[in-house]
Structure formats: structure tokens, C-alpha cells
Specification:
This protein is of the alpha+beta class. The protein is 33% helix and 15% strand.
Length: 55
């Protein structure tokens, strides 16, 4: 895995991925199956979140 793939959504948001490459960001969150208990973000994979909880 590249370093980019190992980042959590929090790290991607800090790097402004949602602004720089919205389509790439969308692939990380669609379809959401987990949410982060820390920040509330949702994601398709638990690995993309800091404190994942299955929905």
C-alpha cells in the first residue's frame, strides 16, 4: 500500500483531498459502512477512519 492509501479520512481532509480531488475522496466514503466515533465522518472501509464503528 502506498502512504496515500494508508491515510485516514482525517488526514485526507487535513490535506484538503475533498477540495483537490473530490472524486477520489468520494471513492473513500461511498458506500459508507462505518463511521468514526471521533469526528463523525463516514467511510466505505474501517481502515479509512481513526475510531471506526460499523453502522
Amino acid at each position: 500500500m502506498s502512504d496515500d492509501n494508508e491515510k485516514t479520512l482525517c488526514a485526507h481532509v487535513e490535506d484538503e483531498l475533498q477540495v483537490k480531488d473530490p472524486q477520489k475522496y468520494i471513492t473513500l466514503i461511498k458506500p459508507a459502512t462505518h463511521f468514526c466515533q471521533g469526528c463523525g465522518r463516514s467511510a466505505a472501509k474501517a481502515d479509512n477512519l481513526c475510531q471506526p464503528q460499523e453502522m
